[in-house]
Amino acid sequence: MQVENLIRAVRELEKERNLPREVLLDIIRQVIIRAYQKQCGRDENLRVDIDFENARVNIFTHKIVKEKIDTPSLEISLEEARKIKPNAKIGEVIEIEVTPLELGRIAVQTAKQVLFQKIREEEARLASEECDRYLGKVTTGVVLRRDGRVVYMKVGRTEAILPPAEQVLREHYHPNERFKVYVLRREDTPRGPRVIVSRSHPALVVGLFQLEVPEIAEGIVEIRGIAREPGSRTKLAIYSRNPRIDPLGTCVGPRGARVQAIVNELRGEKIDLVRWSPDIREYIVNALSPAKVKEVHCDEKEKRALVIVPREQLSLAIGKEGQNVRLAVKLIGWHIDIKGDVEEMERTGSQNLEGEDGEH
Fold it and tell me: Is 309 within 8 Å of 293 (Cβ atoms)?
């Protein structure tokens, strides 16, 4: 039977297109029914059995047993029905094998056309579903190629674009290299759906912690805030809903394994884990770590804080090029002025990042 060639073709497609076998079997059933009906020139209630391993196909039709036959393709007389099933009764549905010895060339050609059309439709449907499933999540992308500064990746069966604005400047994206990416949005193109991904978005770091730390994925430990300068440093505010679980130790992991896995994925980006607190003073102290803070004076109405640190801690609190205090400001959402202690203030005055007013 020529239709068996279709099954062999499906075997190849299963490997090449990475489509689920059950999806392909459903498609080929539709194709065989279409080819059979075209060759026989009539509509019937058909069922197709496929022995995928042995490339065999059996076609069955269902007919209602009736005393008077009006539609031969859908009905069968009681006399004929009892030749197939001796105890057949009026009104019963009889299944009859109608597997042809051979399907004609034209019918098989039609079947192949329908097969590839259905497969294209199924691929488009699966790609669309996959795009929607990835949105707002962290997944793995494989670099395919570069076109100027744009990087093209494969995410599952979907094409993904990593635009220059979503790249990390010091990273290099080589073909076949694997990266974790955050899926920002989808775009529909004539070639099918594709997604826009990011390596610089703060949500990438959040997603990596959700993947690496089960307690975050389960909601026991919560991420309450994040401030990121991609490729350089991130401050992450964490909180434990269970007082018996230390959020810092949980995220760091045994011998630092959890946080180190994330640092490796981010190609060496530093991670500061900050213990979140409802007490704004305590939260500010934690956010300025690793510097040691002496005093914090808050203006909650204006959301401003004056932080006093020992003179030997001043440069550490501000950070290289102001990065430490800058990230703390982003994390807390307050204006922060940092000054040395009284002795240092009397000798040199305040130290600040953005100007003489001492505001950060």
Answer: yes
Coil, helix or strand at residue 209: helix
Tokens of 290: 């690793």
- Taken in order 95, 100, 105, 108, the sign of the CA dihedral is positive
Residue range(s) in the chain whose domain bears CATH number 3.30.300.20: 201-276, 291-360
pTM of the full predicted structure?
0.69
Is 135-198 in CATH node 2.115.10.20?
no
Q: What is the mean pLDDT of residues 90-105?
A: 77
pLDDT digits (tens, 9 = 90+) for 69-82: 888 878 889 888 88
Phi, psi of 183 (to 5 degrees): -90, 115
CA distance 285 to 274: 9
For residue 183, list its beta bridge partners: 197
Q: What is the rounded CA–CA span in Å between residue 337 and residue 210?
A: 33
Share of the chain above pLDDT 90, in %: 56
Structurally, at CATH architecture level, domain 201-276 sits in 2-Layer Sandwich (3.30)
Residues paired with 237 in a beta bridge = 225, 274
- Inter-residue contact 120 to 174 (CB < 8 Å): no
Q: pLDDT, tens digit, for every residue of 22-31?
A: 777 787 788 7
